[in-house]
Design goal:
The chain is of the alpha+beta class and 172 residues long. It is built from 3 helices and 7 strands, in the order H-E-E-E-E-E-E-E-H-H. The model has no long low-confidence stretch (mean pLDDT 96).
Length: 172
Amino acid sequence: MKMPILIHPDPRLKKLCDPVPDVTGELRSLANDMLETMYGAPGIGLAAPQIGILTRLIVMDCIKEEGAPPQPMVMFNPEVTASSDAQNVYEEGCLSIPDQFADVTRPAEVEVRWIDMDGNERTSGFDGLWATCVQHEIDHLNGTLFIDHIGPMKRQLITRRMQKLKREMARE
């Protein structure tokens, strides 16, 4: 089931999310709904707070090539356990901040530990777009948006645009 995505500014997007004590059928169903929402948006990542649920759950799939099979990932309680000194700059966007983009610098490679859909602990390394995406989504779980990594002038400009968008949406 596709779910509505919160638009910045919304206080729920700035909250610290609660850890998942164990993976239940309800949480697996939520993860599948989040994947459907992400693909339908379309996007490459979605965190539970973006749909108003303050739980440490993210989904992502950075495969963008036409015809390539999808590689959906579901992560409960993801955490970066190591990151490279090397940095990458990517132009990031966010489903909660539609049509706004900014260059964000993050570690080029990260190692992440999480719990999968079967309740097993997993660890894997990520680089390139996958590394950027997983860091972006984990930031959401800590109440941080990509615009928190950019200068105050551009952040204020984007926030004002989002406030205007929300006013326009409320009128429709």
